Fold:
Amino acid sequence: MSAACEVEVGIGALNIDDVVAVARHDARIVLSEASRAEVAKSRAIIDALANDPVPRYGISTGFGALATQHIPLEKRQQLQRSLVASHAAGSGEPVEREVVRALMLLRISTLATGRAGIRPETLDAYVAMLNAGITPVVREYGSLGCSGDLAPLAHCALALMGEDEVVDAAGHLTNAENALRAAGIEPVQLQEKEGLALINGTDGMLGMLCLAIADLRMLLTSADVAAGLSVEGLLGSDAVFADDLQQLRPHPGQALSAANLRKVLAGSGIRESHREPGACTRVQDAYSLRCSPQVIGAARDTLEHATTVATRELAAAVDNPVVTLDGRVESNGNFHGAPVAYVLDFLAIVIADVASMSERRTDRFLDVARNHGLPPFLADDPGTDSGLMIAQYTAAGIVSELKRLASPASVDSIPSSAMQEDHVSMGWAGARKLRRAVDGLARVLAIETLTATRGIQLRAPLTPGPVAAAVIAALTDEAGQTAGMPGRDRYLSPEIERAVALVKSGAVRDAAARAAGSLD
Structure:
């Protein structure tokens, strides 16, 4: 989806590509007419309850442990402002722009269902703020992942009211009121229920999950490419990736990964060199080569489960209380982040394992006892040169960090709000560590890709397959210098970072896919 497109928000659910388009590529959003009608209808119900002598949570009461406190009519606006201001209690470094935009979009999506009871003019202002490229400053710490991502969403709501700091479309840090007025948006004065409606959702953790899913779809294909290059460069066999063998254990992700590996290895002169009887004395390759479809494939299946959860959550109206379809205003527990928190942790686990196997393949290239005829550490003059010795250290350090990040956040609950909120999901924390894990996986795969392509080039005069040749070309800069190319020791960090950038952007995956015809 291009940056120029529009995403319609309303009664129908968003999809993951919509979230990425708005959050990462600045697509504009528009509200559907059906949504506008439903929002107006539910707001009329809230307005009718404003003078009800029966206490109504979020309308005429305090919040959390203070829900028993009845608030008189003349203090209702102050109630909403106080709620938002007090809950905008974040601390730490600002989170990434794309995360804040995803969070804003998903809050708008819930508001647009009509289940939150917000005024149409407040929703219009929120949409206008997002479309104007105004990004509230949201701090890293503050959400426990229950009652929603309260502090992050409160910082966005406070900006909508013309308070707090924002970053404008030009990237300048400024006052929210100034940014809103410059964009022709009048700061909002909240009415009954609106403060709660603006902050009570799992939007931050869900937004980060959607972005991670989009990244991992690309990175797991890149992992297949890297694994295939390693099998090629280490004189491994592609026979174990045969389709009939995969069908004996019918996991769909495994079958897709094995198919990718067959395509990566197709047409390789290196592979053909040891296909004849007697050309290779090994009976089986090491697990890190032979079992890569099983590991990467299981990661793919886990990603599909996470996608199912994200898709369901994108169709949800997460708020408390909600205006039901038949007009009741009811409290509920749908704000609890457990469904999202669990899959955030699950993805961190599989990332650590995919990266761990990748690092093991990198290490095999560097060990003269296991790399089948390549020089130690792929060095030009071993002893004088260290080759890629320390690149493997870097990968190993990242993998160790990924193992720590795989420790689940969702099992750690700390009671809050005077024991009213006595079990929380910690989904925001799970999402934050998952983002770091996705970055780490890209780096480990980049180092494997760089190492494998050097190993393949050192097999000359044997010729690589079309996919390996395409990846080597993708790693070559305008000056003809290839990241990871054989030769005397040189400053290695820039080459690693260039490979990382190419993996993260999808350039390595795309080059491989073009040469292979297609990759899943």
Residues 115 and 322 are 5 Å apart (CA to CA). The chain has a mean pLDDT of 92.
